[in-house]
């Protein structure tokens, strides 16, 4: 019996010795035996990394739209790559009651939330008030709060340049424009497009119809056809889909898209379009929140900031037109030309801004009138 007990004891010692050896090989290198206990603990504790914020994006459409949402998503991906953040996206969220529910759910799980459509404004204002610890950024809106900022770019600068190209390409001086919704952002862009076209061809008029959509290819195509049936020979649009320029291509009419380079959808009849570049803004904004320097504001970036520009002019646009547009582009970039500088006359013939007088940002962002030469009404 004693031999048996001695044998069992020996076996137990071997097992304990093996366990001790296994633990040593999988742990950090032990500190010297002369080191205090606190130093040993410090040596085996990994370096604590700075906590990354939880970031979410709410999209009105899907990145596959090839336009507005696609460019926002490209900006988000740039932010992820440069800051090492994995963000959340929620797609196809309609403007209305559902939007507030989505923002509320996201606010309970995230530190920063970007909303990328005008109609999210009131929902974001309401949710931001309930979650002061969360930072909200709203694209194209005008309401702010201590934890809610807005961001937009001077797309009208790009629209003016594209309008110049349209003015040089038309043969009958009748242009068409499919507007999305009658909000200032769309109205002043149509105005800039018209002013650009008239700067090279004062006989031009622009017919406007409204689709009341951001992304509905079938509806947008029908709106485009209604203008094509009127005989316009250049067609522009302010939606997220390429439906309008595709409809124009079917009639062998020049087309102008929006938001992103849409040349691939109608390569033979494509002129160009305003193009967004949201990445630098997303990187800068998230970094400022991370380092504690962010303050709510109403960002209104420019071509000089790089947030907006024009897509490459189409392959069939003449070289002299490209040169003309580039010359004016450089004037915008160096600050020697401002789109909304008087004389500015409304469609009823009333001079709203005398020669040399510039519209303020507040006036631009509150635009509710069309310039002279536009045929169409702005619904109340």
TrEMBL record:
<feature type="domain" description="ABC transporter substrate-binding protein PnrA-like">
    <location>
        <begin position="54"/>
        <end position="336"/>
    </location>
</feature>
<dbReference type="InterPro" id="IPR003760">
    <property type="entry name" value="PnrA-like"/>
</dbReference>
<keyword id="KW-0732">Signal</keyword>
<dbReference type="GO" id="GO:0005886">
    <property type="term" value="C:plasma membrane"/>
</dbReference>
<dbReference type="InterPro" id="IPR052910">
    <property type="entry name" value="ABC-Purine-Binding"/>
</dbReference>
<feature type="region of interest" description="Disordered">
    <location>
        <begin position="24"/>
        <end position="47"/>
    </location>
</feature>
<protein>
    <submittedName>
        <fullName>BMP family ABC transporter substrate-binding protein</fullName>
    </submittedName>
</protein>
<feature type="signal peptide">
    <location>
        <begin position="1"/>
        <end position="23"/>
    </location>
</feature>
<dbReference type="Pfam" id="PF02608">
    <property type="entry name" value="Bmp"/>
</dbReference>
């Amino acid at each position: 019996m004693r031999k048996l007990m001695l044998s069992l004891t020996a076996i137990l010692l071997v097992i304990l010795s093996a366990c001790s050896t296994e633990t040593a090989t999988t742990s950090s290198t032990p500190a010297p035996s002369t080191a205090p206990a606190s130093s040993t603990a410090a040596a085996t504790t990994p370096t604590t990394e700075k906590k990354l914020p939880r970031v979410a994006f709410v999209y009105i459409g899907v990145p596959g739209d090839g336009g507005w949402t696609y460019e926002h998503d490209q900006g988000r991906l740039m932010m992820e790559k440069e800051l090492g953040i994995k963000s959340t996206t929620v797609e196809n969220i309609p403007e209305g009651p559902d939007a507030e529910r989505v923002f509320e759910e996201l606010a309970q799980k995230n530190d920063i939330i970007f909303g990328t459509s005008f109609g999210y404004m009131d929902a974001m204002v309401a949710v931001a008030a309930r979650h002061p610890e969360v930072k909200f950024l709203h694209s194209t809106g005008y309401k702010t709060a201590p934890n809610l900022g807005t961001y937009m770019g001077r797309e009208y600068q790009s629209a003016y340049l594209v309008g110049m190209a349209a003015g040089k390409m038309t043969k009958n001086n009748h242009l068409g424009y499919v507007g999305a919704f009658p909000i200032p952002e769309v109205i002043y862009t149509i105005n800039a497009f018209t002013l650009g076209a008239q700067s090279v061809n004062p006989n031009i008029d622009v017919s406007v119809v409204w689709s009341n959509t951001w992304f509905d290819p079938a509806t947008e195509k029908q709106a485009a056809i209604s203008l094509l049936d009127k005989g316009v020979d250049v067609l522009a649009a302010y939606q997220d889909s390429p439906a309008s320029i595709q409809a124009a291509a079917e009639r062998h009419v020049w087309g102008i898209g929006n938001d992103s380079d849409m040349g691939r959808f109608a390569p033979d009849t494509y002129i160009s379009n305003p193009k967004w570049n949201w990445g630098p803004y997303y990187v800068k904004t998230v970094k400022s929140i991370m380092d504690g320097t962010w303050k709510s504001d109403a960002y209104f970036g420019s071509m000089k900031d790089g947030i907006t520009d024009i897509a490459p002019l189409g392959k069939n646009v003449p070289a002299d037109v490209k040169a003309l547009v580039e010359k004016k582009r450089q004037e915008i970039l160096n600050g020697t030309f401002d789109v909304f500088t008087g004389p500015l006359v409304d469609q009823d013939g009333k001079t709203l801004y005398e020669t040399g007088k510039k519209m303020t940002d507040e006036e631009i962002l509150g635009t509710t009138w069309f310039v002279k030469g536009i045929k169409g009404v702005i619904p109340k």
